[in-house]
Structures are given as C-alpha cells and as structure tokens.
TrEMBL record:
<feature type="domain" description="Gla">
    <location>
        <begin position="48"/>
        <end position="85"/>
    </location>
</feature>
<keyword id="KW-0460">Magnesium</keyword>
<keyword id="KW-0379">Hydroxylation</keyword>
<keyword id="KW-0245">EGF-like domain</keyword>
<dbReference type="InterPro" id="IPR001881">
    <property type="entry name" value="EGF-like_Ca-bd_dom"/>
</dbReference>
<keyword id="KW-0378">Hydrolase</keyword>
<dbReference type="GO" id="GO:0006508">
    <property type="term" value="P:proteolysis"/>
</dbReference>
<dbReference type="InterPro" id="IPR018097">
    <property type="entry name" value="EGF_Ca-bd_CS"/>
</dbReference>
<keyword id="KW-0325">Glycoprotein</keyword>
<keyword id="KW-1015">Disulfide bond</keyword>
<dbReference type="Pfam" id="PF14670">
    <property type="entry name" value="FXa_inhibition"/>
</dbReference>
<feature type="domain" description="EGF-like">
    <location>
        <begin position="88"/>
        <end position="124"/>
    </location>
</feature>
<dbReference type="GO" id="GO:0005615">
    <property type="term" value="C:extracellular space"/>
</dbReference>
<dbReference type="InterPro" id="IPR000152">
    <property type="entry name" value="EGF-type_Asp/Asn_hydroxyl_site"/>
</dbReference>
<dbReference type="InterPro" id="IPR009003">
    <property type="entry name" value="Peptidase_S1_PA"/>
</dbReference>
<keyword id="KW-0479">Metal-binding</keyword>
<feature type="active site" description="Charge relay system">
    <location>
        <position position="277"/>
    </location>
</feature>
Length: 427
C-alpha cells in the first residue's frame, strides 16, 4: 500500500473499520427494547405520527386526558362507542348562583356557596324572609312554598290584605281577649298548686267533666280532649262548659252530652298508662259560643313545637287539688309554667318520659299542676292568639322539689287530630 495514494488509503481504512465493527460478536450489544428500559424513557404514543399504531393500549382515558385537552373527542377515541362516552361540561357556565353566590363545579352538578343573607340551592331564598326567622313575619302559621314564605291561619280566621296578618271570621265576642295572668296579686294559699284564681271567662276553653272528674278542655267547636287513662265516658255523661265557681250557678254554664269517644290508636294501658295519653270527644250538638265558652286554637306540628319550646311561659288551668292530697279547688285556678329542657326533664324522674311527652314547671318553687287537673290545657300565646301546646298528664306528687309536671306533647298528634276532626288551617 502506497502512502501517497490517500484516496485508496482512506477507502482501505474505511473498509477496515467497517469490517471490525460488523465482525465483533453480537453479545456486545443489547436489544433496542432493553436500551429503552435502561434510559427509563417512555415514548408518547401520539407523537411522531404513531398514534394509531395497532399495538397502542386502548381504554386508557387517564393517559388521553393527561396528554391532550380532556374533551369528548379524546374520550370517544378511547371507548370507540357513543353510548359509553358522556360529556360533563362546566355546570357553572350558566351562572346558576344568585345574589352574589359563588359556584363550584361538580360531576353533573354544582354547589352554590351563599352569603350569610341568602340560602337555597341557588342562593335564591332571603334568610330574613324564611319561616325560621321571626315566623316569616306571619301572625299565625308559616310555610315555605317554592322558596317563598306563605302565611296561613288557624280555623276561624282568614288572611288579611297584607297576606301576613289575620282577620276574624267569627263574631267579635268569640275572640274576647284572655285577661292577664301574671300581673295579678299572687295567691298566698299556693293554689293549683301555687297558682291564682282565674277570672270568669278568662279561660273559656276550659271544660269540666261530669261525675266529679273535672278534666278535659275544648280545642275546637265540637271536639274535646280528655285523659285516656280515665274510665270510659258513657254517652249519657256530659261535659260542662262556661264553668267557674263549682258551688253555684252563674248563668254561663252549658251542658253537652258526649256522642263519641275516640282514643288514640297507639294508646295501650297494658304497656304504659301515660304514653299517647290523649283522646277526642265528639259532642252530640255544636257548642253555643259566648264570652265564657270559646275554643282554643290548634296549630300544625312544626308551629306548635316551636311555640312550645320558645314561649317564655305557658298557662295551665283546672279545678284540681290545691296541694298534694289536699282539697280540690272550688273556683278555676291557673298557673304560668316554663318549658323544661328535655335532658333535665328526663333526668328528674325514674319513670320513662317518651318523645310524646314534655316537662314544664319549676325545680324548687312550690308551683305545679296537681291531681284533678289531668286532661286540662297547657296553652301558649302567640301574637294575641292562644294555642293548645300540651295536656296535663302526670307527675310525682305535686310541686315536689326537683320534680316537674309531665304533659302530652300535642304537636306530635296534630296529623291524627286534623284527620280525625277535619280541622284545617286557612290560607
């Protein structure tokens, strides 16, 4: 080989290098797949025109949405089926939240985060105009319909022009104002126990039952409530309305015979003498109303329950014993009692106090309902109208320290009373 022949020498050198490379054993090199694994580098299937290669993995929506904009087209490529591919656009695009509410997108749904003044799915309800705030401004009952307050009235009333106040459908004398109960001079004899003598006509819904069982009270025009744990009332027995002084005739009394007694279907004296302690009495003839004979209103469940718990005090009345094992009252007695929180109520007795009962009264003061008051009304006042919230049921002694009077919780029985009597609210 001549050194001067550079072209030939270059060719010969190249041939030598080529021969050396391809003459080496094959074990020196690794496969292409193994080399890729050493570098830990993965190729994008949809880059370099390889997206539709037959060895591409299918049904990997996560990869599609990471490598591309996640939309219907990318999802359709994975499932290759129109029925399996469903779109979920941003649910907040239509700005569904009202009154400055903030929208948060979800899967086929959204959540509105409302300011403190509004509530509802779309922040469409003004909190100040809900039933939970000042009873919605209603003088009687409040209901929410389509996100708006709708006021309703007790039987015997109708809504006023403002759709919040009420108008009386009965003659004016049928709504003779109940007289004050707490401003009178306190009775030193601690009657009812610890109450005061009621004025004639002050509690016109109070009813006295015949045969010495002075209990029961009117809650509508022709229906009465009495104690289920008393003996059965015969159709020949009567109820006395307009009573005040039991020892003399005052010209205001009217007698009514009982046509039908309806005991609550869940009452079972074999299990409990006081659970579901309520019955209805239907009279043989309507009541002739006067200042001394008038019904007490009955409210729907939620209204009655709220009134029971939030009223500062409520009124109980009757001709029961003036003290434990003492004489019964000659004239109608009354007493204002506060509602007792349920935990404290249940802790005051070893007897079972069910959710159909509640406690009212005083822990240490000698004031309470007593024997003979059973079946009498527990009434609460709301904006000048008296509503039935409880029925005197039972207790341990009378006015005993640490013990309370136990009452039937009328709110629990509104559906049954309404269905049985036909009493309806007015709208």
């Amino acid at each position: 080989m001549r050194v001067g022949n550079t072209g030939r020498a270059w060719w010969s050198g190249s041939g030598l290098i080529f021969g050396l490379i391809f003459g080496l054993p094959r074990s020196v090199f690794v496969s292409q797949q193994s080399a890729a694994m050493v570098l830990r580098r993965f190729r994008r299937y949809n880059s370099g025109g390889l997206e539709e290669l037959p060895f591409k993995n299918k049904d990997n929506l996560e990869r599609e949405c990471k490598e591309e904009v996640c939309n219907m087209e990318e999802a359709r490529e994975v499932f290759e089926n129109d029925e399996k591919t469903v779109g979920d656009e941003d649910q907040c695009l239509s700005n569904p939240c009202q009154n400055e509410g903030v929208c948060e997108d979800g899967i086929a749904s959204y959540v509105c985060w409302c300011t403190s003044d509004f509530s509802g799915k779309n922040c469409e309800i003004e909190v100040a105009k809900q039933c939970s705030v000042n009873n919605g401004g209603c003088s009687h009952f409040c209901a929410m319909q389509s996100g708006h307050v709708v006021c309703q009235c007790a039987a015997g009333y109708t809504l006023g022009q403002d759709k919040k106040s009420y108008k009386k459908q009965l003659p004016s004398w049928a709504f003779y104002a109940t007289m004050p109960t707490i401003t009178e001079q306190q009775n030193e004899d601690k009657r009812i126990v610890g109450g005061n003598e009621a004025s004639p006509g002050e509690i016109p819904w109070q009813v006295r039952r015949d045969a010495g069982r002075r209990e029961g009270r009117e809650h509508c025009f022709s229906m009465f409530s009495t104690k289920s744990h008393c003996e059965a009332i015969l159709s020949t027995q009567s109820l006395h309305l307009g009573e005040h002084d039991l020892h003399k005739s005052e010209g205001t009394e009217k007698d009514h015979f009982v046509a039908e007694q309806i005991i609550h279907p869940h009452y079972n004296d074999q299990r409990s003498q006081y659970n579901h302690d309520i019955a209805l009495l239907k009279l043989s003839a309507p009541v002739e109303l006067s200042n001394q004979r008038r019904p007490i209103c009955l409210g729907p469940k939620d209204f009655t329950e709220t009134l029971l718990r939030e009223a500062s005090t409520s009124l109980v009345s009757g001709w029961g014993k003036l003290r434990f094992q003492g004489p019964e009252a000659r004239k109608l007695q009354k007493l204002e009692v506060p509602y007792v929180e349920r935990t404290r109520c249940k802790g005051s007795s070893r007897e079972q106090i069910t959710r159909f009962m509640f406690c009212a009264g005083y822990h240490s003061e000698p004031m309470d309902s007593c024997q003979g008051d059973s079946g009498g009304p527990h009434a609460s006042n709301y904006k000048g109208t008296w509503f039935l919230t409880g029925i005197v049921s039972w207790g341990e002694d009378c006015a005993k320290e640490g013990k309370y009077g136990v009452y039937t919780r009328v709110s629990r029985y509104y559906p049954w009373i309404s269905q049985t009597t036909g009493i309806r609210i007015s709208s």
